[in-house]
Structure formats: C-alpha cells, structure tokens
Amino acid sequence: xxxxxxxxxxxxxxxxxxxxxxxxxxxxxxxxxxxxxxxxxxxxxxxxxxxxxxxxxxxxxxxxxxxxxxxxxxxxxxxxxxxxxxxxxxxxxxxxxxxxxxxxxxxxxxxxxxxxxxxxxxxxxxxxxxxxxxxxxxxxxxxxxxxxxxxxxxxxxxxxxxxxxxxxxxxxxxxxxxxxxxxxxxxxxxxxxxxxxxxxxxxxxxxxxxxxxxxxxxxxxxxxxxxxxxxxxxxxxxxxxxxxxxxxxxxxxxxxxxxxxxxxxxxxxxxxxxxxxxxxxxxxxxxxxxxxxxxxxxxxxxxxxxxxxxxxxxxxxxxxxxxxxxxxxxxxxxxxxxxxxxxxxxxxxxxxxxxxxxxxxxxxxxxxxxxxxxxxxxxxxxxxxxxxxxxxxxxxxxxxxxxxxxxxxxxxxxxxxxxxxxxxxxxxxxxxxxxxxxxxxxxxxxxxxxxxxxxxxxxxxxxxxxxxxxxxxxxxxxxxxxxxxxxxxxxxxxxxxxxxxxxxxxxxxxxxxxxxxxxxxxxxxxxxxxxxxxxxxxxxxxxxxxxxxxxxxxxxxxxxxxxxxxxxxxxxxxxxxxxxxxxxxxxxxxxxxxxxxxxxxxxxxxxxxxxxxxxxxxxxxxxxxxxxxxxxxxxxxxxxxxxxxxxxxxxxxxxxxxxxxxxxxxxxxxxxxxxxxxxxxxxxxxxxxxxxxxxxxxxxxxxxxxxxxxxxxxxxxxxxxxxxxxxxxxxxxxxxxxxxxxxxxxxxxxxxxxxxxxxxxxxxxxxxxxxxxxxxxxxxxxxxxxxxxxxxxxxxxxxxxxxxxxxxxxxxxxxxxx
Length: 818
Hints:
Blueprint: H1 3-8, H2 25-28, E1 55-59, E2 65-70, H3 93-110, H4 115-156, E3 159-161, H5 169-174, E4 190-192, H6 193-197, H7 204-232, H8 241-248, H9 259-274, H10 282-297, H11 301-304, H12 307-326, H13 329-340, H14 346-366, H15 390-420, H16 427-442, H17 446-449, H18 452-460, H19 494-517, H20 527-551, H21 556-559, H22 571-587, H23 591-601, H24 607-624, H25 629-637, H26 654-657, E5 670-671, E6 675-676, H27 677-686, E7 691-695, E8 703-708, H28 709-722, E9 731-733, E10 749-750, E11 761-763, H29 768-778, E12 782-787, E13 790-796, H30 797-807
C-alpha cells in the first residue's frame, strides 16, 4: 500500500468544517497534539452506534474503573458522531471496552422486562458465534473459488481443454482413455497453444510458440491485476498482513477491509498467482478473510459500533484465513495468537478455533484440488527419522535464518528505494517488467515453469514405485517381482543429477525474483515463495545425504541405522524441513509454523526435526536483526505500532520524552470556564492537534480533563443548529456548575458531557520503561504528564516510537508515517 494514498485520504486540516484533525499522520500524533482521547470519559457511550447513550467512568492511574454520572443527566439528547474515529487514527481501547461493558449491563438489566428483550439478549450473546460462523463460511468458499480459478488460469498459459474449456490440465485428462501411465499428463483432449496455432506438438517451432504464448498470458494476467488494483482498490496490493497487524493493534485504515478491497483482492489474487510471479496466495487469503470478518461485523450492532470488539472478530478471521490457506485450523489459531493479534482474550481463542474449523470444513466440502485434502502439497512419510539427521536439519535451519536475514534487508532496501525514486510512481510498469523477466527466465526450466504450489508438492513427495518425476530417476536394482512398501536407498540416475542442476538454477532464480516481487502493487504473499526456496534447498541436501548414506553405509554415523537395502533417508522430509526453516527465517514464526507444517504432513514424529530447524532459523535470523518481514514493513511505512516483542531497557524519564520540549511552543490547552465558542473555533482552525487538555486556569495549570478535537467540533456544530442563543461570544463551560454571568451575556454552552474527566496521567519522574509498558498493555495512544497535579506536557505513541528509534541510533523521522 502506498503511503501517499493514505496521506491524501486525510482531510484538509485548516477547514473547520472538516471534522478530522490533520492531513498527515505525523501531525495526528505530533508533539503537543493528541491523536484521540484514550481514557474513559463521559462520552464513553454517547455512541453505541450513532445515537446510543452511555455512562461516564472515572479512572485512576491504578486502573480502577467505576460507574459515575449518567449521560442522560448531562445531555438533552445524544450528539451523533461523538466518540467515533477518523481515518488513520488509533482507537481508544479503554473507552471501547467501557462502552461494551455498559451495553452489556444495559441489555442484562432489560432482559427480564419482556420476551422481546430476552430475545434481544440471546441474539446479542450469540452474535459473536454467528459472525465468526459467517466469516468462516465466506473464507472457505472464497478460498475454494480462488484455488480452482488459479489452477485453471495457470494451466491456460500452456494450453486449453477442448472437450471442456473450464477444465484445467489434470481434470481434462481424467476421463481420457488414451492416457498412459508414463505420460499421464498427455491426452488428445488437452491441446497446447502450439498445437492449436501452428499444428505442431513437437520441435523448435512448437517450443517457441509455447514460449511466446506463456509470456503473453503471464503479461496479460499481471497487467490486468495491477490495473484493477490501481483503478478500483489500491489497498488490495501486497500481502496485507503488516496492515492487518497494525489494524489489530488499534489503528484505523478506512476501506482497507471493505467490500471493494475484498472483491478486487479476490479477483487479482487469482490473476497474480496465474501470472507466474514469485508470490503466493496464502498471505493475501488472511486479508481476504479479515475483509469478510469486517463486512459481516456490520450486521451486528455489538461489533459494528465498537472498534475493540470488531478486532476480536478480525483476530478470528485471520485464523480462518490461515486455516484455508494451509489446511491447518489449529495452526491458524496459533498464527493469529503469535503473529497478528494485539489483544487476544480467551473468548477470542474459542471463536478463532471455531472460525478456523468452519472455514476448513467448507474448503474440504468444495475439494478444490480433487485429492480430498485442503492443500495441494499434502504429503505423508512412512519412514522414521534418525538421530544423525538432526545435523543436516540444523544446517537447513541455518540456511533458513541466513535467507530470512538477507531477504528482509534486501527487500526493505528495494522498497525504500521504490518509495524515494521515480520508479515508485509507475507501479504498472514495474509489475509488467517483473512479470516479463519472470516469465522469460522461468519457462526454460521445468521447475520454475511449474506453479509454485505444484513445485512444492513435487519436492515434498517421497519417491515411490509410481513416481515418474526426474527427481525419482534412480538406478533400480530391486527384484521386479518383489512387492515392497518402502523402496530402499538407491544410487541416483542421470535424471536425478540433471534435476539437481535445474533445482540449483531455480533456487537462485527464486531468491532473486522474490526480493523484487514482494511489495509490488498486486496481491503478493510470501509464504509460498519462501517455502519453495527452502524446499528446493532441502531436497538438494536430502538427495546428497541419501547418496552419502548409500555409498558410505559403513561410516560410523550411518552404520547403526542404514543397512544395505534399507530405506533410511527421505529427501522429501528434508524439503519439508527446509521449507519450514526458510519461512521461519523470514517471518520469525515458531510455534504456529511448526503446527502448520505438521498439519500439512500429518506426521507427529517429525515435530522434533521441524522444531530444531525452525528454532535454529530464528536464532540465526535474530543474530542479524530481531525484526521479521512484517514488522520491517510496518516500520518502513511508519505505522504507529508498538511491538510487544521489543524490549525497552533505557533509563530515561517521562520528562525527557514529553512534548512540548524546551524550545517548542507552549501546550495548546482549553480552560474550563473562561473561553468562548470563537476562541475554541480559532484554536481548532489554527492547530492540527487531535485533542486539548482542559485546565482550571492559565495560572494554576491544574488538570481538569481532556477534550477531543472531533468531539468539540461536532458538539459546537450541533449546538448551533439545535440550541437557540448559541453564538460566537457564548461562554463554553466544562465545569459542573456554570459560573455567574452578566444578564446580557449570550447563553453559555455546556460541554462537560464530552470531557474526559479521567485522562491517563503519569508524573514527570516516571521511568520510560514503565510508560512504554503502560502503552503496550493498555493500548494507550497518549497520556498526560503532570507534576503535583499541574499539567506539564503530553506523550503520544509516536513520541514513544520516535524515542525508541533515537535510543536505537536510528533517524526518528525515517520511521514516521509519511
């Protein structure tokens, strides 16, 4: 997603009538300004929708929350719009949770009044399960549709089925009687483009025509994908996981999970995968599932009017996305917990589990691959692993960690260059160039020409008696009449050595192209390319170990396990371990990754090799930098995301970080009873801050509360329309009792109802490690700094991110949202 597009979505900040506060996120969270009021306030429940009325809560720094004055006592009627959020703002977690508790209390208090109220109470209680059920159903159905369409369009680059145009290559030959076992992919019904256009099935002319058509279809699919993204849904590009992590932490990006994004992402994901680019559909499927969760949450007031509750649905949706991407429901739940979710209560765990279950069930019912499995590359191994194999498994872990560190640095450097040069202004041209280079280089090599998922399937598959792949071209010394379950290790034939050279070239090609492909303006996942790179490396290592064991079975490391004629090495297992190691090196996932790969293979006995490889890859990757690829892209885009994995060990104080600094202008504040409507409107027009502390007087600087810019604007506009006598010279009163005014004075405007009476505060001597902990665990966006009750300044989430960058010797300006 281009940060410029996010920037331009902001409103013009000098317009008083624009309710939003600033045109850039830098100003949204800047200095003395505040993004949004994070604390509980009297407008907590002004909006349980647009019109619901709530309760005022008071909160101390100890964190206790108690019910106080009801808003009905303060407002003649609720003000529509108060308490909602603008684009690119961060939600108020505490206020949203208080709104939900008050809504729950209100429903419980009424449910015994009538059967209708009891029905509403039951509907509210079950709405969480209903929304995750709908999300799971939609995610599974869309994933099946994407899988089927992507397979068909991928085969369209090579030819077409004349008997049924909607069949892919494999389905076309299922019903053919002319298909032989050795050439099972050839049948009269399937015609290559060379056969259709020039009437030749073999020869140089046929090869060149197929080459040209392959490039033509690849470029057509890529161009159509990037054009649809650019014109209809700019947010549909990329994997979406960095933005989803940011959204789940409380940031608001309007439209990122909308219906247009869902529709365009679903269509362009098929096109991008079919174009042959070095990308996968698994990451974007998480984005697709979250779009479904967001859309269905609007059907239920419990979630549509509460941003914190909506994020519980999105956490469950991300679990459903991984469930259908890998056929791993439990792995999906753990992925949501480990990788993307910011707030994950126990209830969300259960609902995530249920959403993943429903999504997997729907996908299994659709059976998109015709193998009764949820993924194309499901495999089963029947031989155990041996202790000496831990050494090559750990080596694969080292390779995965080195690949992950290299990829993150190279890809971030390229994306940063794209942002800072003219090349980034031509996203369509970039996609066309990358697609053209990919297609031209990929076609001659059969392993790069394959769909990446099919490549992984071939690399994972163990060599059995029915395999015809060149990877299984071993010299067979078996007695042909002997029926065997496990084929013993055999010397490699010419086909195996030829395949190894082709795999080495494919490995180099995949490494280079994935760096330049991830981040272009089409839907692009990273899971499958990373797994393919690891699977290629793993298969090569597996064949090498297998041949070593065959020719040197008398070595002491092999003697105890590998007897002559025994099947002791499974190269496909090494491919699986390598795939997990490389994906772990890039994403730094651990537990969820092992469970996902274990669910792919269905083999409990291979968990230890997977754990060894994944932990090794994480340790090696962490030695070069603790960030995974998603955190690196979050930092590149400057999203206000406080990573819970980072430790803050410096000894600075709140006074060192707060704004205003020594040479800054003074803090923009409101006084509780001696400012007019014109004064407040002028302050709103002249500043870009999102909120203003309210003090007793300029002399005392005693803190009274905090008022949001948006709420002030809405309240004043509403008062001018609905209350007689409110003019520019009307006194604005935030105090409980209106001060005595001269008889000729215009009617005062009481705004105590929108004032947060308990803004979260820290003293100037609070250590910053405690402040950072408070921001992370409570999800704060800002807190006020006081000294003996007198207001000194403010600390926002951006101030903390800026400070953490400074302590890490980074340029603070480089991490800000631009």
